[in-house]
Amino acid sequence: MNSTAPVFRFSIDPGTAERDLARLVLTLVELVRRLMEAQALRRMEAGTVTEEEVERLGQALMGTRSAVTGLCQTLGLAPEDLNIDLGPLGRLL
């Protein structure tokens, strides 16, 4: 584990609490998006989805990625800001 990586902590400072909460929510959305993407790939490889379903899954996942990226830009966050440090467990993403 990289000891120089910033550790994510919630601040009680009202000036940053909203941004910190938004960062946490976006991190969870990104985690779920990545899990859904991995599941979609497994289903595609197993041949359990139709071509139409693959297209819909791809569009939905790209839309979600675009929304997360846009919200990060709006909040002044970089995508790597969502990869929070879980201490001894390592990085989340």
Question: What can you tell me about this protein's structure?
Answer:
The protein is mainly α and about 90 residues long. The chain has a domain of about 60 residues. It has two helices and no strands. The longest helix has about 35 residues.
Short description:
By secondary structure, the chain is mainly α. The protein contains two helices and no strands.
Question: Layout of helices and strands, plus pairs?
Answer:
Blueprint: H1 14-46, H2 51-75
Helix coverage percent of residues? 55-70%
The overall pLDDT average reads: 84
Radius of gyration: 16 Å
C-alpha termini separation: 13 Å
Main sheet specs: none
> Would you count the extended β strands for me?
0
**Shape descriptor:** elongated
Protein structure class = mainly alpha
With helices defined by DSSP (H or I, 4 residues minimum), what is the helix count? Answer: 2
What is the percentage of strand-forming residues? under 5%
Summarize the helix and strand pattern as letters: HH
Give start-end ranges of low-pLDDT stretches.
Answer: none
